[in-house]
């Protein structure tokens, strides 16, 4: 091959490589979902072994252990003897291609602890003892496309969550009031826990509030459980999905199983975490956004970081500055879609969530 032909061949290879990168970047979300999709039907008989909640390893956080929920934020105090508990359900941290995650997968457990419990459950350490179970979380595609297989995987994850909650009631609760909190998949299975176990019976009287953030939470799905309409209302639900002004499309959750075809269009719940009301009034400020870096350094809250208003069931958010994100987090953001703040919904309102959980807990205790 002549030198000129070699140069043209090299240029063609570089051009092809650049084109592949550009196509991959443009369709990153679709590629991620395609790679994660299981290639076999869901089969409960072949599911990973069920968790044993007597084993401390089946928990991401418990009050008697030093764990990710104890992560500290600069200038923020941790409660020393809280009278309320929080039962926290983490979002998806499993990127494999099976229908449900194994509980002995060290990579998944580390992602849960550092990428979820540390940055989300820690928001409740100012009001509560933190209980955060691991569970056989469902494959992410179960939440983006309704299917019988996906519904089965979600059902298995929800069964674990209910088993963990019942273990908590039997061994740890001792009649204490509690907060239910979750994000993303955790909110999805948390809604089932709320509807099937907590709301129908006497446990509802001990529910301080449920923070079911980043999931497809609808008024129809909540049934008789009310949406929170003020900062100190108790026994109610806070939910929102945060999107920026530039958001147009991206990865979104769907209900699985879906509602009946002849059912009215579901109405998404949106409670503004700056006002704690479900109306469409705009608000600015925020007590402090909190973002951890990949090295685990103690973060400092950034006050007055957001402006937010509920609009047709979506929390429309504008930021006053850039969000610090490492390389992998930026890949996730791009896959979710420009302006999709799903991954940082707790971080944007971390101090607001912390203060509100403490306020609702105090209000609940004062009424007893």
UniProtKB/TrEMBL annotation:
Superkingdom: Bacteria
UniProt xrefs under Gene3D superfamilies: alpha/beta hydrolase
Pfam families on file: DUF3089
Protein name: DUF3089 domain-containing protein
Native species: Nannocystis punicea
